[in-house]
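User: Hi! I have a protein structure encoded as tokens and I'd like to know what sequence might fold into it. I'm fairly new to this, so please keep things simple.
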């Protein structure tokens, strides 16, 4: 077994800062979203993905892949959202085994009401704190990591 490549002080500081920032940012954005719009982050993710999809509908399997969730976990979450009138499920028109999630008018209203406040929170707690060069660096490294982790042949989450 190879000797581990331990992080040096500079790398460790960057790694720990990133982890702490991510946890605090996720927590604050989730709190504000729930307080201001009554939506959880997964609710918001489902509604925003559906609102941007053609005809405001997606296959359950595609939505699960986008959210990095199992179909079972997503199905349970969709049931709760369906009870609140935010989404509905239909059979896939050409594949009776597949299901499609559809944004309801109530779901559309919920995302339209939540989005301005959520974007303001993202801006307040991240975007506006960065210089243009820092924002460009954030975009570059985050996409590089996403591309690496999404590469063909890598196991699915």
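Assistant: Happy to help. Inverse folding works backwards from shape to sequence: for each of the 157 positions I chose a residue that suits the local structure. Here it is:
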């Amino acid at each position: 077994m190879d000797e581990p490549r331990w992080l040096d002080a500079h790398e460790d500081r960057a790694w720990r800062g990133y982890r702490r920032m991510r946890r605090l940012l996720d927590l604050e954005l989730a709190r504000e979203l729930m307080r201001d719009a009554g939506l959880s982050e997964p609710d918001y993710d489902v509604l925003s993905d559906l609102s941007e999809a053609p005809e405001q509908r997606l296959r359950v399997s595609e939505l699960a892949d986008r959210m990095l969730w199992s179909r079972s976990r997503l199905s349970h979450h969709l049931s709760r959202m369906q009870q609140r009138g935010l989404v509905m499920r239909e059979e896939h028109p050409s594949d009776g085994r597949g299901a499609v999630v559809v944004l309801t008018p109530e779901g559309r209203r919920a995302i339209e009401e939540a989005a301005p406040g959520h974007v303001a929170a993202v801006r307040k707690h991240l975007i506006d704190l960065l210089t243009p060069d820092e924002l460009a660096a954030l975009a570059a490294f985050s996409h590089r990591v996403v591309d690496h982790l999404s590469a063909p042949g890598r196991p699915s989450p």
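A useful reference point when you look it over: The helical segments are 9-37, 41-52, 60-67, 71-83, 105-125, 132-149. Feel free to ask if any position seems puzzling.
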